[in-house]
Amino acid sequence: MPVMERIQAEIDGHPLVLFMKGTPEFPMCGFSSRAVEALRSAGAESIYTINVLEEPEIRANLPRFSNWPTFPQLFIHGELIGGCDITLELLESGELQRIVVEAASQ
Question: Which amino acid positions bind [2Fe-2S] cluster, per UniProt (predicted)?
Fold first, then answer.
């Protein structure tokens, strides 16, 4: 499967997808670690993640797919939410909790 189709399939197949460096248990960068912490604080019990360090094709092509240059990248219901800063802003505003609850209920 071509990488762009695979990215789309991952996003379509899960209500919440975090493309990150490392894993939730062993994040390999501070931004990915903070994004996971924000999602957990918002009530996300299971976070579907893709470790871009183990997926070089996804790491190389996701920025073109999403028009977002950095990692992590959070997608909810197929829509790019953003990276670490936006995820933290949504957590502070209370919006992330609402989004996570909606994603979990579908």
Answer: 29
